């Protein structure tokens, strides 16, 4: 095929989408990101999730009774199963909220295979939480693309049925109703089958007012099904934030004819056009001050120097640890650990709940309750030498954003603990973690 512009000719093999404007050929569609850049630009992976050997512990689960979540090692997937009773439900949501950076295209991909559609069953996959986001939904027997918004102070949903997708309906008719405007083609003529494994993608140029494109990968190409246009249309932002989690849902709205299974396979979130987090973001530093030192009784035991979590009303905030400072009064060595979701004991071995103090004008609260760190997921560890203060800038925690040193998550409030163990008994230690609040 050829598109011509006066004396300029572009030879095209396969699928190439263009706008014709002012005697210029402007690429569009899946070959460009949400800000019109050809997808040869720098791409920074913020998150990826696979389930090769087990459920990878990057997701929180909310489920009712009579449900199951089964890991399938041979297919590197999870089966989310509900029975036939009303209100049977499984929700899987990432523990991280993903940092959208204004001016960068945020590309999201989720792979899945749905249960066959049936009356009373609803299945959802996308980038969303209870208040905002974008997702694919099959409700009863109808497929929708949905933009959910809390901009008005209550949840509003713009639900677009498959028959009304404005680019390509993926229903076997090959062309959308506005083919002349976008000249978008689908290589195949078969309707999409959501019970077969699919790649659902979307990209966002948020800035409060930009477009959202949704579609499916077909033949190696990102093909657009629907564009939610927002600029020059809405009087305000189209959703509260573009910093959101990934999510899979399967729900019985009513009793159904049989049990149902949604397969969760693989997910990724990518910042296109690079990623440059702002170090000028507000900082928060908390922990044990010099007049609040902790006397560490035993060598080899880890103690709570400081534990952090989000406040209950800021569960979609994003805070990233940038620096750890520790000061001991003994000429000895120390070992530290960063522990996710630790459990704690008293000095006599009994379980203890920490007492948290809110940080003023912040989304963070912290605890310096004296306690032994019992169990938890060790995220990082290392050693501190010599007497005096050591600022652990060598950890480069800010650059470890693609890891899981981040407070944030709707379903996973979670905690991070700076745990310390002395090289000699009765050592006194103080310490802080400095956080950047990027959202």
Number of strands: 32
Question: Which structural class do you get from the secondary structure elements?
Answer: mainly beta
Low-confidence stretches: 1-24, 176-188, 400-404
Domain count: the total is 2
Strand content: over 45%
- Shape, please? globular
Radius of gyration: 25 Å
CATH architecture of the largest domain: Sandwich
Q: Could you tell me the CATH topology label of the largest domain.
A: Jelly Rolls
**The top level CATH class name of the largest domain:** Mainly Beta
Q: N-to-C terminal Cα separation, in Å?
A: 46 Å
Largest pleated sheet? 8 strands, antiparallel
What is the strand and helix layout of this fold?
Layout: E1 2-5, E2 8-11, E3 18-21, E4 24-27, E5 43-49, E6 59-63, E7 67-72, E8 77-82, E9 89-94, E10 105-113, E11 121-128, E12 133-139, E13 142-149, E14 156-161, H1 179-182, E15 198-204, E16 212-218, E17 221-228, E18 246-252, E19 260-272, E20 283-288, E21 294-296, E22 303-310, E23 319-328, E24 334-340, E25 344-345, E26 357-358, E27 364-367, E28 372-373, E29 377-384, E30 388-391, E31 416-422, E32 427-437
Antiparallel strand pairs: 1-2, 3-4, 5-19, 6-9, 7-8, 8-19, 9-18, 10-15, 10-19, 11-12, 11-18, 12-13, 13-14, 15-16, 16-17, 20-32, 21-32, 22-27, 22-31, 23-30, 23-32, 24-29, 24-31, 25-28, 26-27
Question: Can you walk me through this structure?
Answer:
The chain is an all-beta fold and 439 residues long. It has two domains: 2-272, Jelly Rolls; 283-437. Helix content is 1%, strand content 46%. It has one helix and 32 strands. The strands form seven sheets. Strands 5, 7, 8, 10, 15, 16, 17 and 19 form an eight-stranded antiparallel β-sheet that branches. It has a seven-stranded antiparallel β-sheet with strand order 6-9-18-11-12-13-14, with no helix packed on it. Strands 26-27-22-31-24-29 form a six-stranded antiparallel β-sheet, with no helix packed on it. The longest helix has 4 residues, at 179-182. The chain is globular and about 75 Å long. The model is unreliable at 1-24, 176-188 and 400-404 (pLDDT under 50).
């Amino acid at each position: 095929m050829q598109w011509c512009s006066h004396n300029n000719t572009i030879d095209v093999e396969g699928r190439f989408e263009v706008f014709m404007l002012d005697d210029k050929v402007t690429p569009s569609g899946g070959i460009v990101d949400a800000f019109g850049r050809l997808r040869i630009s720098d791409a920074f992976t913020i998150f990826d999730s696979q389930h090769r050997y087990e459920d990878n512990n990057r997701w929180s689960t909310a489920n009712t009774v009579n449900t199951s979540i089964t890991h399938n090692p041979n297919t590197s997937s999870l089966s989310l199963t509900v029975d036939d009773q009303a209100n049977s439900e499984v929700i899987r949501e990432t523990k991280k909220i993903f940092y959208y950076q204004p001016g960068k295209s945020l590309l999201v991909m989720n792979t899945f295979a749905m249960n066959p559609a049936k009356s009373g069953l609803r299945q959802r996959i996308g980038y969303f939480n209870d208040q905002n986001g974008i997702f694919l939904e099959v409700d009863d027997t109808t497929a929708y693309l949905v933009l959910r918004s809390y901009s008005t102070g209550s949840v509003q949903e713009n639900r677009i049925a498959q028959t009304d997708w404005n680019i390509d309906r993926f229903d076997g008719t090959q062309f959308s109703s506005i083919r002349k405007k976008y000249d978008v083609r689908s290589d195949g003529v078969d309707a999409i089958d959501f019970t077969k494994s699919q790649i659902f993608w979307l990209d966002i140029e948020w800035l409060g007012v930009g477009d959202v494109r949704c579609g499916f990968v077909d033949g190696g190409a990102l093909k657009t099904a629907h564009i939610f246009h927002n600029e020059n249309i809405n009087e305000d932002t189209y959703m509260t934030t573009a910093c959101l989690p990934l999510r899979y849902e399967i729900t019985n709205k009513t009793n159904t004819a049989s049990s149902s299974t949604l397969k969760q396979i693989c997910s990724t979130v990518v910042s296109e056009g690079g990623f440059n987090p702002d170090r000028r973001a507000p900082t928060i530093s908390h922990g044990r001050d010099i007049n609040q030192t902790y006397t560490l009784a035993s060598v080899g035991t880890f103690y709570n120097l400081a534990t952090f979590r989000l406040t209950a009303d800021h569960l979609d905030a994003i805070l990233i640890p940038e620096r750890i400072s520790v000061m001991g009064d003994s000429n000895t060595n120390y070992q530290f650990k960063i522990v996710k979701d630790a459990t704690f004991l008293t000095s006599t071995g009994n379980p203890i709940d920490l007492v948290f103090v809110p940080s003023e004008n912040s989304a963070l609260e912290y605890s310096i309750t004296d306690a032994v760190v019992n169990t938890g997921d060790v995220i990082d560890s290392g050693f501190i030498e010599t007497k005096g203060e050591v600022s652990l800038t060598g950890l480069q925690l800010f650059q470890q954003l693609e890891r899981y040193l981040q407070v944030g998550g709707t379903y996973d409030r979670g905690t991070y603990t700076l745990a310390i163990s002395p090289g000699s008994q009765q050592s006194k230690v103080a310490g802080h973690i400095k956080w950047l609040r990027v959202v």
